[in-house]
Design a protein that fits this description.
The chain has helices spanning 9-20, 32-71, 76-86, 92-101, 103-121. The chain has 122 residues and is mainly α.
Length: 122
C-alpha cells in the first residue's frame, strides 16, 4: 500500500477546530480530540438555540401584547380575533413594538378590534 502524505490538510483541519475552540476550558481548547468533541457539541447547541430563539421571542411578544391589552381592558385572544375580523394583518412583533412605543396607536387598534368583535356578535 502506498504511503500517504497528508500535506497541509491535517494541520488545516486541526487549526480550524482549535480556532473554534478558543476560549474553552483546559484541554478543550488545547488538544484536538477534546476540542473536536466540544466544538461539535457547541455547534449542536447553536443549531437548537437558533430555533429556540424564535419561540422565545414569539412568546415575549405575546406577553407584551397581552399586558397592553389588559391595560386597555380586553383579553389577548379577543384582541387578536378582533384584528383578524377587522382585516388588520399585523404580526406579533410589530404589535408588541406598537404596544410599547406608541400607546395611542395601540389603543386605536384595540378600538378597531373591539368594534369588529361587536359587529360579529350582532
Amino acid at each position: 500500500m502506498p504511503r500517504v502524505k497528508r500535506g497541509t490538510n491535517r494541520r488545516d483541519y486541526r487549526h480550524k477546530t482549535l480556532r473554534r475552540a478558543k476560549g474553552y476550558f483546559l484541554t478543550k481548547s488545547k488538544l484536538n480530540r477534546a476540542a473536536q468533541e466540544a466544538v461539535e457539541k457547541a455547534l449542536r447547541y447553536g443549531y437548537v438555540g437558533r430555533r429556540l430563539k424564535k419561540r422565545n421571542f414569539r412568546s415575549l411578544w405575546i406577553v407584551r401584547i397581552n399586558a397592553a391589552c389588559r391595560a386597555a381592558d380586553i383579553s389577548y385572544s379577543k384582541f387578536v380575533s378582533g384584528l383578524k375580523r377587522a382585516g388588520i394583518g399585523l404580526n406579533r412583533k410589530l404589535l408588541a413594538d406598537i404596544a410599547i412605543n406608541d400607546s395611542a396607536g395601540f389603543l386605536s387598534l384595540v378600538a378597531k378590534a373591539k368594534a369588529a368583535d361587536q359587529a360579529n356578535l350582532q
